[in-house]
Specification:
Low-confidence stretches of chain B: none
Largest sheet of chain B: 7 strands, mixed
Number of strands of chain B: 11
Distance between the termini of chain B: 34 Å
Order of helices and strands of chain A: EEEEEEEEE
Radius of gyration of chain B: 13 Å
Strand content of chain A: over 45%
Largest interface: A-B, 28 and 29 residues
Strand content of chain B: over 45%
Structural class of chain A: mainly beta
Strand order of the largest sheet of chain A: 1-9-8-3-4
Largest sheet of chain A: 5 strands, mixed
Shape of chain A: globular
Helix content of chain A: under 10%
Distance between the termini of chain A: 37 Å
Order of helices and strands of chain B: EEEEEEEEEEE
Mean pLDDT of chain A: 93
Number of strands of chain A: 9
Oligomer: heterodimer
Shape of chain B: globular
Mean pLDDT of chain B: 92
Number of helices of chain A: 0
Radius of gyration of chain A: 13 Å
Helix content of chain B: under 10%
Chain lengths: ~110, ~110
């Protein structure tokens, strides 16, 4: 799987939007962009994924650059419960291989 | 109902012992996975398994072996436990395609003394 680059940590205030960036300059045409998060002492949790178009769900939005070499996870109104490590992961279109986790971004939410 | 469950939640054992961790999913997925998260919090895939294919991460020692009695279960057997096996082990299930989501269990915290 192609590699992703994320900031080690980010800090935001409660009830403000958070934009988490991810660079994936070697992405291939069949790679999907997935975001997972891991809250303290829990298993990873799916957040959102997309291929080319921007995506919205109840948890977040995913903005994908036109050249697909970067993407941004947007939490519209962060709460303390959003404090977690967020992972940006590329997944190729075929096969049963697992997810390749990087170091992720540790998101800190200040009250 | 919990989608992906693991037992036990905590496991403390001595070096050299053999232990198993059980995983069950009720999502009807074809593919199940085992991941290891070490003390530095790095998450790595160990195995991917469906009824047709077992994909093994080449870095996993052969002391680790997945056993699947049926489609809803993928257990992890570990022989001759070593200190370095201490970690959190996560089971997951999901589809095998690039667009498919994976669902993770709560983890099993293994401590080898």
């Amino acid at each position: 799987d192609a590699k992703t680059t994320q900031p080690n940590s980010m800090e935001s205030n409660e009830e403000e939007p958070v934009h988490l960036p991810c660079n994936h300059s070697t992405i291939s045409g069949t790679d999907y962009i997935h975001w997972y998060r891991q809250l303290p002492s829990q298993g990873p949790e799916y957040v959102i994924h997309g291929l080319t178009s921007n995506v919205n769900n109840r948890m977040a939005s995913l903005a994908i650059a036109e050249d697909r070499k970067s993407s941004t996870l947007i939490l519209h109104r962060a709460t303390l419960r959003d404090a977690a490590v967020y992972y940006c992961i590329l997944r190729s279109g075929g096969g049963a291989d697992g997810l390749t986790f990087g170091k992720g971004t540790h998101l800190i939410i200040q009250p | 109902d919990t989608a992906v469950s693991q037992t036990p939640k905590y496991l403390v054992t001595q070096m050299g012992n053999d232990k198993s961790i059980k995983c069950e999913q009720n999502l009807g997925h074809d593919t199940m996975y085992w991941y290891k998260q070490d003390s530095k919090k790095f998450l790595k895939i160990m195995f991917s398994y469906n009824n047709k294919e077992l994909i093994i991460n080449e870095t996993v020692p052969n002391r680790f072996s997945p056993k699947s009695p049926d489609k809803a279960h993928l257990n992890l057997h570990i022989n001759s436990l070593e200190l370095g096996d201490s970690a959190v082990y996560f089971c997951a299930s999901g589809g095998g395609g690039g667009a498919e989501t994976q669902y993770f269990g709560p983890g099993t915290r293994l401590l080898v003394l």
